[in-house]
Structures are given as C-alpha cells and as structure tokens.
Amino acid sequence: MVLTVVGGFGAVAGYRNSAGGAIAAVVFGVGAGLVLDEFALILHLDDVYWTAEGRKSVEAVVLTAALVGLLLAGFVPFGVNDLSEQELQDRGSVISTIAMNFLFALIALSKGKARIAVFGAIVPLVALVGAVRLARPGSLWARRFYRRRPRARAKAALRAYRHDRRWSGPRRAVQDWIGGKPDPRPTRLPGPH
Question: Cα(105)–Cα(144) distance, rounded to whole angstroms?
C-alpha cells in the first residue's frame, strides 16, 4: 500500500518530468499488484490465501487485468469513446451519457452483479443488460423490490441457481489455474492438541 501511495503522489508531483512520471507509474503498478495479490488478506484480516475465501484475491486480479486490457484496447469508461466529434463538443450530451451509463452500472451493482457493473462502466451495453435483467436473490435490489413479489423472488432464485450451477465449475477451474487450488482443509500447526 505504501508503494501505491508513493507512486500515486510521485505521478502527481512529477507530471512534467517524463522520466519521473514513468518511475512513479512503475512504483504504483508494483504496489497495486502487491495489494491485489493480498486482497483476501486485507478483506478478511486473516491468512485465507489457500482457502475458498482466498479466491477473492484471484477474482480481484483477474477483474483488474481484464479492465486494464479493455482500457489498453481503446475502450473509455462510460461510453464516451462512442461519441462523435460534434457530441464531444456538446458537454451536456457527454455528461448525460456518462450519468446514464453510471446509473446503469449502479443498478447492475445493486442487483448483485458486481462483475457486470464493473465491465459496464467500460462497455455501456453490458451495464444496460445487467440493469434490465433479474437481480440475484440476496442483493440489495431483491431485498428492496422483491419483498412482496414471491414470483419474482422465486424466478430470481431459480435463475441464480441455474447460472451458478452452470458457471461455478468453469470459474473454479480458471481460478485454480491462475491462483492454485485451495487446500480442502486448513493445515494445523504441530503442537499440543
């Protein structure tokens, strides 16, 4: 975390010096990588790296790498890259486009679809799809809007069950390939029993 802070401040302070800015970017990148690697430790305040809870670190790294890849491929957050030259000059349409895409991403996030919301900030149509579809059963949206709608709750639970059943195996295989397979049981230190 210290490297991330130092790199961030170094980039802000050394923005005119290209060599200083490049060094600060490298320091920031190293710090961000280390923080993401220990994301589960920071989240749980316990050494859960080789457990099922430790998969959060792998998910954070994969999600960050995917977002960086999208940005490097030329996608700009909230769909601003889809505007024409005339629309870019009209600041009102730019602000409304960003606000609408951000709203779609927030709705998708409140529906329990964090990955879709994050990708939707970069690719707006993804956030729209997440905002329109049913919420996950335990999400803030479902607790608020499906409380008195048993059919919507049942449909959301069935859809989440089918989705999780279909994708949990491939997702776990990719996570195991990237971050290693977690221990089925925690290791015990030798000592008195």
Answer: 18
Candidates 152, 97, 96, 90; CA nearest to 125 is: 97
- Among 68, 67, 78, 71, residue whose Cα is nearest residue 125: 78
Q: Pick from 180, 190, 193, 188: which is nearest to 54 by CA?
A: 180
Residue that is written with structure tokens 């600060």 in the block: 24
| Residue 189 vs residue 121, higher pLDDT | 121
- According to the 3-state scheme, what is the secondary structure of 16-60? CCHHHHHHHHHHHHHHHHHHHHCHHHHHHCCCCCCCCCCHHHHHH
Amino acid at 5: V
| Whole-structure pTM value | 0.52
| Residue entry with tokens 């977002």 | 67
In whole angstroms, give the CA distance from residue 70 to residue 57.
20
Distance CA 60, CA 117 (A): 14
Q: Is the pLDDT of residue 189 over 60?
A: no
Residue 13's CB is within 10 A of a number of other CB atoms, namely 12
Chain segment 159-186, per-residue pLDDT in tens? 888 888 888 888 888 877 776 776 666 5
Contacts of 102 (CB under 8 A, 6+ apart): 78, 121
Distances (CA, A) of 15 to 18, 26, 33: 7, 14, 22
Please, which pLDDT band fits residue 84 given cuts at 50, 70 and 90?
Answer: low
